[in-house]
Amino acid sequence: MSAKMADTQPKPFISTTIPNQWSSGICDCFEDVPMCCFAFWCIPCFTCKTSMDAGECMCLPLLDAFGLIPPMTTAMRVSVRRRYGIEGNICQDCVYSCCCGPCTWCQVARELKAVPIRNM
Length: 120
Fold this sequence. Notes:
By secondary structure, the protein is mainly α. 51% of the residues lie in helices and 0% in strands.
């Protein structure tokens, strides 16, 4: 008797009635001033906390120091974008991660904070 094995996993289906955009822009850091100040004064602590809030290992952002393109900042942005069905592409994610690292982390943190609002 032979059993068939599934060789592909189902893809997530995201159904939403809101536009597939970030809830805030990359330069909207001052929408949440305490978060902006935390990111400005202690970016390593802020990135580790944001990573933990996203359900990832809190030490992963510390690996960004070892590359020209910050791999963890890019990966976190892509992860949040895909998790919530936000439009975009890897090229944009790389540009934002390289040129606007702290702003990227603030945008990701604001998105994670806005998730309960998006699910209503």
